[in-house]
Design a protein that fits this description.
heterodimer; A: seven-stranded mixed beta sheet; 11 strands; 0% helix; B: 0% helix; globular
């Protein structure tokens, strides 16, 4: 069974960089699929942030592209998100997820709340 | 970017009845379309992919239909455990992957 688990600070100051890591178990990232991040502001809908292929190719939401970096560490079977210059609008539950080959999301992490506040 | 519009925003249905949720795409996404269920306090869960294929473990009372720009999720014999927000998603033209704004399903 594929499992994903997010980790990282729950509080980030405005203008700083949000950093999260997703540890994957039950499947080797290097075997394939896309691995990505999706966020959900409190009480609102889902927003796709970006995805990375196991080979390292990245795909980002154009609305966030200038601030987002997603990377993969196949040796640790994990991938990471960095979002720079955060503001209160970046406060959200951040989910890591696996995209199937076509693009639908077949596995989700439990989510981690990140609050941007001084 | 493909914009997805879900209707209604909120749906209240009696136990045992049928619920019909709709999602419209701003341009054709063929059958590259999925539905997700998000119960309160939980991560979303894949219900339907390819517009009509049920994901593993999803009960047969959940069904998806449509192609192009109009899609429907039908839940028959509604149960209390079906209380959730349901999101549609397209993955035809990505990036970006886009989601609808959600339909909140309540049980009367």
């Amino acid at each position: 069974q594929v499992q994903l688990q997010e980790s990282g600070p729950g509080l980030v100051k405005p203008s700083e960089t949000l950093s999260l890591t997703c540890a994957v178990s039950g499947y080797s990232i290097s075997s394939g699929y896309y691995w990505g991040w999706i966020r959900q502001p409190p009480g609102k809908g889902l927003e796709w942030i970006g995805s990375i292929y196991h080979s390292g190719s990245t795909y980002y939401n154009p609305s966030l592209k200038s601030r987002v970096t997603i990377s993969v560490d196949t040796s640790k079977n994990q991938f990471s998100l960095k979002l720079s210059s955060v503001t209160a609008a970046d406060t959200a539950v951040y989910y890591c997820a696996r995209n199937s080959g076509s693009g639908c999301v077949d596995y989700w992490g439990q989510g981690t709340l990140v609050t941007v506040s001084s | 970017e493909v914009v997805l519009t879900q209707s209604p925003a909120t749906l209240s249905v009696s136990p045992g009845d049928r619920a019909t949720l709709t999602c419209r795409a701003s341009q054709s996404v063929s059958s590259n379309f999925a539905w997700y269920q998000q119960r309160p306090g939980q991560a979303p869960r894949l219900l339907i992919y390819g517009a009509s294929a049920r994901a593993t473990g999803v009960p047969a009372r959940f069904s998806g239909s449509g192609s192009g720009t109009e899609f429907t999720l039908t839940i028959t014999s509604l149960q209390s455990e079906d209380v959730a927000v349901y999101y549609c998603q397209q993955y035809h033209n990505w990036p970006p992957i886009t989601f609808g704004q959600g339909t909140r399903l309540e049980v009367k």
